Amino acid sequence: MENRVVATQLENNKNFIKSKLGNSGDITFRDFYIPMFGEKKAFVVYIDGLIGSPEIEDVLLRPLMSRKNEYINPEDSNALDLLISKGIISKSVDKSKDLEKLLDSLLSGDTIVFIDTMDQGMIISTRVFQMRSIAEPINEASLRGPKDSFIENIRSNTSLIRRRIRDYDLRFDAIKIGKRTKTDVVLAYIDTLVNKEILKEVNERLSRIEIDAVLDSAYIEEMIEESSYTMFPQIEITERPDKACASILEGKIVIIVDNSPVTLILPTVFWQFFQAAEDYYERFQVATFMRWLRVIALFLSMTLSSIYVMLVSFHQEMLPTPLALKIAASREGVPFPSIMEAFFMEFMFELMREAGLRMPKPVGQAVGIVGALVVGEAAVTAGLVGPLLVIFVAGSAISSFAIPAYNTSYSLRLTRFFILFCTGMFGILGFLGSGIFITLHLVSLKSFGVQFLGPLDPFIARGKKDMLFKAPLWSMKGRSSIFKPQDSNRQAKDGNKPEP
After folding, report:
1. Hey, where are the domains in the chain?
2. How confident is residue 277, by pLDDT bands cut at 50, 70 and 90?
3. How far is CA 10 from the centre of its chain?
4. What is the radius of gyration, based on Cα positions, of the chain?
5. How many CB atoms lie under 10 A from the CB of residue 328?
């Protein structure tokens, strides 16, 4: 858009707006006169649906059109400032000569006022959006802890964080991304905690984004992550304000995107995907047990089908004789090799899971449960697969649901097929080789300069208290040094251990 300044002739400004925005039905112009300004002619322009009609009438039109106000000489150098202070009662008023800035505010839901012979336009805050109410998290439900979640309104989301963190150093840096959408993006962090080098890197990556539209935080995630071709996410996502606040208090950065209920947390390490918000509201013994349960679920999710193929096709000697005979008897008459059985069943289970997600909720649940039972039973009865394989595949599918981060569970589902293929080709060598390859790949990943497998690689002792183990809260005196926060102390050095 060419940089134009406000003209002193009203019609010129009106024609400019119409030439840029066209004859859209939701753009409303309203002409009126201002008695306190010597009957100067003016007009307001706003977008119907983005503003509240009572706001326009009560804070703008009625005060300006009243004849009871004190007269202001429009020739005075500060006439516009006097008009704002005496005739407009809006909570926020700004003025600008830049038509581009005025149009951007108009498209964001503000009301713009132009007055004849004045070379500046006024921006009146009248934003009122239709939005859903704050409800319980859908994808990160917990039995204990706060029950609110982020919504699609960026101001509501920043207020949820501000309510929890009343620190003078809490910052919300706002930028706009998207040539056409001009989406509001906010970086939330604590200025005296965050690593300045990481903050600078995040700002640089965001400033390099040149794209037409940003419709969700996923657009930002894909544009700023370190490695684009890996299937493992390097940025944690959450819809829980308490989880976002906990990350900010650790010295991390939270990115909030307007029109998206999902925020981004960075930098991120691999172990965060196995930590649920509920871990910090339960006793540390329970939280530690649940974390190890999730790690076991991770291993089973990726390897159960591969273990079946490896034992049945390559290494029957590893099985006890009675079990080997039972498996051989159950597979009698199955016309396909075990690798084809496993791929067939894994594919069918993934297909039913995806169909259940895309269908209406009541129907989708029925399809997922009944479909799995019917297909599994029918496949065994028809002699296409062995009954033991159905147990292994079902166990693998159930294990993937135990991972708190659903975007990580998608990665595990893809990894499962890779390990299964390698095992089907080379037996135990393929099984171990694929595992080593995935581990080396994870070691090579970074998230904004932070090692993805830290604090295990590199080894940092302080970070171990909140990794696979959840230490008592009173014993976690310092923040993990892997993120290099400015202040490493979380609580008093002598601790808060309860004593009789």
Report:
1. 10-124, 154-268, 281-450
2. confident
3. 44
4. 30
5. 13
Confidence of residue 52 (pLDDT cuts 50, 70, 90): low
* Strand positions, DSSP E, 325-364: none
Distance in angstroms between the alpha carbons of the first and the last residue of the chain = 70
Using DSSP bridges, classify how beta strands 253-257 and 111-115 pair: parallel, antiparallel or unpaired: unpaired
Does residue 190 sit in helix, strand or coil?
strand
Q: Report the SS3 class of residue 184.
A: strand
d(CA 273, CA 238): 11
| Strand, coil or helix: 27 | strand
For residue 329, count CB atoms less than 10 angstroms from its CB and return exposed for 0-12, middle for 13-18, buried for 19 or more. Answer: exposed
Q: Which SS3 state, helix, strand or coil, does residue 193 take?
A: coil
Q: Which amino acid is at 477?
A: K
Residue 158 CA, chain-centre distance (Å), reads 14
Find tokens 């921006």 and name the residue: 123
What distance in Å separates the CA atoms of residue 220 and residue 475, rounded to the nearest whole number?
A: 36
Element containing residue 219 per DSSP (H, E): helix 217-224
pTM score: 0.88
Q: Please name the residues in contact with 198: beta carbons below 8 A apart, sequence gap of 6 or more.
A: 253, 266, 267, 448, 449, 450, 483, 484
Choose among 9, 71, 65: nearest CA to 33: 65
CB of 404 within 8 A of CB of 276? yes
Q: What is the pLDDT of residue 463?
A: 62
Are the beta carbons of 402 and 292 closer than 8 angstroms?
no
Comparing CA positions, the residue from 297, 251, 255 lying closest to residue 273 is 297
C-beta of residue 144 within 8 angstroms of C-beta of residue 158: no
CB neighbour class for 278 (10 Å; exposed up to 12, middle 13-18, buried from 19): middle
- Tokens in use for 472? 């008592």
Model pLDDT for residues 32-42, shown as the tens digit of each residue: 998 888 888 99
Q: Map tokens 């039973």 to a residue.
A: 377
What angle, 0 to 180 degrees and rounded to 10, lies between the N-to-C axes of helices 321-330 and 387-400? 100
Residue with tokens 């509501």: 156
Q: How many helices (H) and strands (E) does the chain have?
A: 16, 12
Name the maximum alpha-carbon separation found in the chain.
103
Q: What is the dihedral of CA 7, 13, 17, 20, to 10 degrees?
A: -50
